[in-house]
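Why do we bother with holo predictions? Because pocket geometry can differ from the apo form. Keep that in mind while you read this record for zinc ion.
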Amino acid sequence: MKNNSKNDIVDIAINGPMSDKTIWKSDSDIGKAYGDMVKYLYRKPNWGCLYPGCGEKPISSHSIQASKIQKKLCDNNNTVVSFQPVFSKERLSVTAKYIGVHEASTSPMFCKKHDASLFYPIENYDVDVSNELHLFLYSYRAFIKGFYDKMFSFQASIDGVEKLKQVLNYNEDKPLSDYPTLMNEIKHSYGFYLGYFNQLKIKNVFDYAFEHNKYDVLNFKTKDIPYEISFAVCSSFTPNNDFDGDVINDYIADDEPPKFVFMNMFPENGKSYLLISYLDRQKKYLNTYTESLISESNYKDRLSEIILRYTDNFIVAPTYWNSISDAKRIDLLRFFSDTINNKEISYYPNKHNLFEVGNN
Ligand SMILES: [Zn+2]
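The structure, written out:
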């Protein structure tokens, strides 16, 4: 029998309410909202290991599998290429860095025990696209990496506000509007706070599904590519629009939490795999879009565009990076960097396709 309890996570995962609009605040309430954020951080659940109910000290967890995928893509020095942001006063730019396979795409997400046990089936066996547990674990990894990043940004932004208060000699008796820079920073933090809460709801769904083997809370799509690609991706993203320009994520008007696509792509055993999923309850928003990534004849362009426009957790084989022209390297880095803050920038197949190999 269907359980309609608001607190029943099964129901929430399938069709129940997940959004909480009361969390939105007007400018005049932002000072109070800041108090709420700080209070939350003081009382927050343990931000250690992210395995359901753990919280132990985390180790550096790989999100892009090291022993199979990174080892396949790396050069003789055991390095892979990763796009890394460089912050300067003038602008944000991105550089291609050679990183050792043990450091690439790692974050302190799980304790030693759970890092090993949670992903055991996909760490120790070849991917099986007919196995829902495999597909679920790849999705979970893509999700949790983004969740960790959001959590980290939220904490770091609050630390930034506290530092700025000291620099500005902030006086609590004065209105916040007397400190426009501080006001701006707090609004920025509030964005991370909202993002964190939205993703926390999605984490509850993932955790429930994992604990009860209920993988059909996600909708999976897979594609085989008949050769080994020169890159690997493990990321989640919220597309603004579909390829016809129709809106998918409208963060102001939507009652739904953000519509995430969880994506993995990697070479294995002579071919490559694209694994995509999304919350089944969001099917009406994401089904056509994700299907187009699998079935359209220009899927290589669509995927290249998505990887560069929306994801940040991907690595490239140095052999590929060294085989393309300087001009193409600059085009790829520039598109990745410029689309961080401006989602309107156009993708050009001749400049930004990641599947092309060799001297182009
Ligand atoms: Zn743990």
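Strands lie at 59-62, 79-87, 92-100, 106-110, 218-225, 231-237, 261-268, 271-279, 314-316.
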